[in-house]
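Let's practice the habit of predicting before peeking. Look at the sequence and jot down your guess about where helices and strands might fall. Then scroll down.
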Amino acid sequence: MKVLFNEEKMSIIVELGYDLSIPDHITEYAREHGLNKKQELHFTPITFTQGKEILKQFQNLGLSEEQQERVKAHLLEKAQNTNWDITTTETFYHLRKKYIFPNKTVEKESVVQTIESSSLAEFIDYINNLLTMNLEGFGHITLFVKSDDPEEKNPGIGISSEEELKSLIIKII
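Done guessing? Here is the structure:
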């Protein structure tokens, strides 16, 4: 598995580096609803939304630029040295989310599969303890995607918590 860090957005993704066995009825459901199989599969220990919260917490804690850089480097090192354990579940969701931008509105859909991961829970707990936060982790892998914006290059939907997931569900497949 490969860890990727977006320093600007303070997000971390972990590429699986392998394909998953997707049940035929899930693939058929996605096809019937016009969703495309995602080429690169990953899960996201720190989403863009959580990254914003972390960056805001840096300010709340009064961390200098140098201290912020050290924390970022430390979290990346922690993520790279984590033995990411994931177990896929038999739970699949069809999700929809609307994004409102200054010049357009984009609607995205995804089919996601939930995962169980003690390492993800431990990583989130570590961040919460380090930065005095209360982030939640929601383990999932996006399998199929769709966007009504033809220029969209990454039509996935970021999900930071189980509560957020519940607000996006079209159907439990």
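How did you do? The mean pLDDT is 92.
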